[in-house]
Amino acid sequence: ANRGMELTGDGKGSGLSLHSVLAVDAQRGVLGLAHQNLFYRQKVEKGETRAQRVQRDRESLVWATAVEDLGSSPEGCQFIHINDRASDNWPFFASCRKSGVDWISRAAQDRCAALDHGATKKTGTLKVLIRSGEALGGTTLDVRANDDRPAHRAKLLVWASPVTIYASWPNPASAPLRMWAVRVWEVDAPA
After folding, report:
1. Phi, psi (deg, nearest 5) at residue 39
2. 65 and 96 in contact (C-beta within 8 Å)?
3. Counting Cβ atoms within 10 Å, is residue 49 exposed (0-12), middle (13-18) or buried (19+)?
4. What is the DSSP string of 104-143?
5. What is the mean pLDDT of residues 113-128?
6. pLDDT averaged over the chain?
7. Taking a C-beta distance cutoff of 8 angstroms, is the pair 126, 111 a contact?
8. Mean pLDDT of 10-22
9. What is the CA radius of gyration of the chain?
10. Scanning 5, 114, 118, 173, which has the fewest C-beta atoms within 10 Å of its C-beta?
11. Residue 46: exposed, middle, or buried by beta-carbon count in 10 A (0-12, 13-18, 19+)?
12. Could you give the CA distance from residue 76 to residue 5 in angstroms, rounded to a whole number?
């Protein structure tokens, strides 16, 4: 009954994984599905090395595949791929650069970096560097209640800077990426 299914969750379940890209226009709202990719999570063999892992199909490539399949933005249009932290990988960044599209990704990896686009060498790691800057401004946001906290008005601070991100294994020779880093954090959060 489970033939053709993949590992899901903690590896004890089985099912299908479908990576979907939703097209949204700033003025018109949701346009519909732009891309879908059915993928199967591969079972990692005991003792598999990092070098072996990058040679096989893996779940982290779904973001790069979507960018490659959708291609460049048409004339008069701007594609911006907005993703969760699992897209924080070099193949995704390289696909965006190659296609000439923009992206917003939540940082997952604490990459070697430097503040400024003119940087010529690493000066620290991204997460340390972005925490070193002073807030540029702030705002408030009404946060709904959940199981762990009551509803409240969050006071948010914002910092932003151009950054240079340096490639690491398995792509150490890749050219550095020039992008912007934005940090948003809550101050005086309820306990």
Report:
1. -135, 160
2. no
3. exposed
4. EE---S--EEEESTT--S--EEHHHHHTSSPP-EEEEEEE
5. 93
6. 88
7. yes
8. 82
9. 19
10. 173
11. exposed
12. 41
Structure tokens at 50: 């990092």
Q: Give the DSSP letter of residue 72.
A: S
The DSSP line for 21-34 is EEEEETTTEEEEEE
Higher pLDDT, 49 or 44: 49
Query: What tokens does 64 get?
Result: 């790069």
Judged on CB neighbours under 10 Å (0-12, 13-18, 19+), 64 is buried
Residues in the chain: 191
The tokens of 124 are what?
């620290």
Q: Is the pLDDT of residue 187 over 90?
A: yes
Question: Which residue in this structure is represented by tokens 């053709």?
Answer: 4
Q: Is the distance from CB of 106 to CB of 127 less than 8 angstroms?
A: no
- Please list, in sequence order, all residues whose beta carbon lies within 8 angstroms of the beta carbon of residue 170, skipping any fewer than 6 positions away: 50, 51, 54
pTM of the model: 0.79
Query: Interior CA angle at 118 toward 78 and 73, to 5°?
Result: 10
Which residue type does 8 have?
A: T
CB-count burial class (<10 Å; 0-12, 13-18, 19+) for 130: buried
Could you tell me which residue, 133 or 155, shows the higher pLDDT? 155
Q: How far apart are the C-alpha atoms of 71 and 61, rounded to whole Å?
A: 15
